[in-house]
Amino acid sequence: MAWTKYQLFLAGLMLTTGSLNTLSAKWADTFSAEGCHGDKEHEFSHPFVQAVGMFLGEFSCLLVFHLLLCHDRRRPVPTVNPGQSFNPLLFLAPAMCDMTATSIMYVALSMTSASSFQMLRGAVIIFTGLLSVAFLGRRLKPSQWAGILITILGLIVVGMADFINLSGREEHRLSDIITGDLLIIMAQVIVAVQMVLEEKFVYKHDVHPLKAVGTEGLFGFTVLSLLLIPFYFIPVGEFTGNPRNVLEDALDAFCQIGQKPLIMLALLGNTVSIAFFNFAGISVTKEISATTRMVLDSLRTLVIWAVSLAVGWEQFMGLQVLGFLVLLSGTALYNGLHRPLLARIPCCAAWVLDDAEEQASAAERERLLANNRVVQAGDDA
């Protein structure tokens, strides 16, 4: 089935904005400028300020949702489902996970390459799969377990590529790379916890995706903005690149932006791209499929890598290509992209059909149980 022009636009928007999100954050990390009080020129190393900008982009999705809702209500027949009312505090725990993971990843991005950053984020399927088994009672298929094992292998290959690429160089830089890679993987554990919390407590409610993203963005933006105050006074030694050696020096960030306005352009690119990326991702899932969204998300890793090579942020390494292909294979297996191919093989077609019927039966059982809970709730009322 051929895609419509609108579907092509959505796919292109998701791929472009998803790539720009990481590239603009990395671009900001490449700048150097003078800080406050005549500080000498130093790198723009402000991951928590960048994270606040990212949450501002997510928060804007909430504003977009209400604008769409107001516009839709003016139509003779409204088409947007506003969803049921819910307690916004349901989003507090996932938002705190999002805030913690995002902040860690921005710290890591300043230490490692943009391509490795994007590739290593694929580790999320490992921890999401394991946590869904432990806390959601889900049973993973053999292909999903295989996907997890292949993803682990891909992470090892990408890590080896980073190590080999920097072996023989100054020790401090090598330690930064290793620390950054480990921080990214650690952040994926928190992202997996966020996904499990959302599935267990949030998405059983009828919440519009834009409203969900925007509400989490509001919590993340508010809490992290307030945390910038104590962060200004917490000493961490030379771990950060700001002159005062504190966890985050927001005033220094603003001074550097004043000295070099291009930094603001990079930060705005990050904020705007995350807003459009969330909108495009939700729309791709709705208009095309969740599988297409996953494929596009994998393709943006390739775009980020190509741009990083083109602008000279990193050097070409064949081992990194192998790591990307292994990670892509693991993600494809975990998400079931092998099924359409197996369905064309006569001896495997029956197995794929049985697997699809099992999924459909499980979905139907869940739908019936949900309807039964609604009826019981009505009777109790």
UniProtKB/TrEMBL annotation:
Oligomeric and partner information: Interacts with SLC25A5.
Membrane topology: Multi-pass membrane protein
Domain of life: Eukaryota
Keyword field contains Transmembrane: yes
Cleaved signal peptide residues: 1-18
Originating species: Muraenolepis orangiensis
Record's protein name: Solute carrier family 35 member F6
GO CC, alphabetical: membrane; mitochondrion
Protein family: Belongs to the SLC35F solute transporter family.
GO BP terms: negative regulation of mitochondrial outer membrane permeabilization involved in apoptotic signaling pathway; positive regulation of cell population proliferation
Its job: May play a role as a nucleotide-sugar transporter.
Pfam families: SLC35F
Keyword Iron: no
Transmembrane parts of this sequence: 48-69, 89-108, 120-138, 145-165, 177-197, 217-234, 262-282
GO MF annotation terms: transmembrane transporter activity
Principal localisation: membrane
Compartments (UniProt record): Membrane; Mitochondrion
Keywords: Membrane, Mitochondrion, Signal, Transmembrane, Transmembrane helix, Transport
